[in-house]
Amino acid sequence: MNQKQGRGKVGLCPEGMDLLLPWHLTHTLKKEEEEKIKKHLRSCSICRRELKQIKHEQRLYQSAAEEIPIPQTFPHLLNEIEQREEGGIWQRIAALIPRPQPALAATLIVAQFLVIIGLVTILALNPWGAGEQLYRTLSGSSLVEGKGPRISILFQDGVQEKTAREVILEIDGTIVNGPTPMGLYTVGLRSQMSPEELQHVIASLRQKKDTIRFVEVGGE
Amino acid sequence: MELIAAGDHRAFREIYDRYYKRIYLYSYRLLGEGEGAKEVANEVMLEVWKGAKKFRGESKPSTWMFGIAVNKIRKEIKRRPPAHDDLDVLETREVGKQTRQDDMTYHAELQEQMRMAITKLSPEHREVLDLTYYQGLSIKEIAAIMNCPLNTVKTRMFYARKRLGGILQEMGIGGET
Predict the structure, then answer these.
(1) According to CATH, where is 1.10.10.10 located in chain B?
(2) A79 touches chain B (CB under 8 A)
(3) Which residues of A touch B49 (CB under 8 A)?
(4) If pLDDT is split at 50, 70 and 90, which confidence band does A133 have?
(5) A28: nearest CA in chain B?
(6) Residue A200: CA count within 13 A, CB half-sphere
(7) Who wins on pLDDT, A128 or B132?
(8) In terms of DSSP H, where are the helices of chain B?
(9) Residues 10 to 49 of A: which have CB under 8 A from any B CB?
(10) What tens digit of pLDDT does each residue of B88-144 get?
């Protein structure tokens, strides 16, 4: 490239018009600049030579660029857009919250959320043992505690309380605990019952398959 | 842009067809081979989809999109380790003497040399050369994209050409053919 050092200013042409030549070539100069440069080119050999050089450069530049293969990414882009729009679980939850919220409304939503979390936590921890007390019977452990052996009985589904009590009465037992939420009774038997007698009671209960689903020695 | 903001995929396709190639090639010439150019071009398109609502028409869509591309490319260049572009390692094949007999080979060679020369330029010089020679943008548009005054665009282009000319001369293809 033919170059000459400028005299303290940028460009080769004394009037600095060569700085505009690249855009003269691409027809993107303002109308008045365009007219000025056309006029200038008639009298400036430096700019004429420079313009020729710029044309050559531009041609080379463009031809070099055309050789590059262009990837086809539109389907991939659409997929990505869909994925971003669907978002993750938190984005979906966030999308359910209407925005923008006034400060008071937002505070109330947060407060409600905290109350719900608090209630769920309390119920899960069950500090008062609420469930257990509901299922505990009046024939509590105090009546027979420490006397005879205990057995656990699980009655068949649909067996009425009355029938269950009759069965327990037949074996001379007393309800110590139950029915639990799962329907399990702990029954205390009379004291001084020999192991043979206990086995006999168990065997007789196990024969009542239409009433009793499960029976075994031991219990709360 | 309004249609894109409303989620119209066909309008988005139209913008993609019109600008993707230009932005990809622009990114390619600044970032070189690899996935970088594709990623930048894709990200620009995604920004267009996401940001179409924000586009107020104060500039041309191309100016807006190239502005996004320039920022992304600059970030990518900063992120990359510096390249070893020592001029001494440039191939200085005597293209003129050896290959003139075969025009096709000669032009292919020229193009390859030009590509190599472009990679030796600084990102700022590549930006201004590309936006002018390939994208055909005005000084005002380039100034908006590069976020600099009009005179900076003119002088930067001058120095970019000077540098490119120097590199091409070292490669033996300096003059106009």
Answers:
(1) 95-170
(2) no
(3) 77, 81
(4) low
(5) B138
(6) 8
(7) B132
(8) 2-5, 9-31, 36-51, 61-79, 95-99, 103-119, 123-129, 139-146, 150-170
(9) 10-11, 18-20, 22-23, 26, 28-29
(10) 444 444 444 444 445 666 667 777 888 888 888 898 998 999 899 888 899 999 999
Q: What is the CATH number of domain B2-79?
A: 1.10.1740.10
Chains A–B, number of C-beta pairs less than 8 Å apart: 105
ipTM of the complex: 0.73
Q: What is the CATH number of domain B95-170?
A: 1.10.10.10
Nearest residue to A123 via CA among A131, A113, A111, A134: A131
Partners of residue B46 in chain A, C-beta under 8 Å: 77, 80-81, 84
Q: How confident is the model at residue B101, as a pLDDT?
A: 47
Least CB–CB distance from A65: residue in B107, B132, B134 = B134
Q: Do A58 and B111 touch (CB under 8 A)?
A: no
- Are the beta carbons of B118 and A61 separated by less than 8 Å? yes
Domain boundaries, chain A: 17-66, 138-217
Strand order in the sheet with A174-177: A174-177, A184-188, A150-155, A212-217
Kindly report, as residue ranges, where domains of CATH 1.10.1740.10 are found in chain B.
Answer: 2-79
| Ramachandran category for residue A153: left, alpha or beta (phi over 0 → left; psi -120 to 50 → alpha) | beta
What's domain A138-217's architecture? 2-Layer Sandwich (3.30)
The number of residues in chain A equals 220
pLDDT tens string B19-74:
898 888 888 888 877 788 888 999 999 999 888 888 887 888 888 899 999 999 88
- B132: helix, coil or strand? helix
Whether pLDDT at A115 is above 90 = yes
The beta-carbon neighbor of A74 closest among B13, B161, B168 is B13
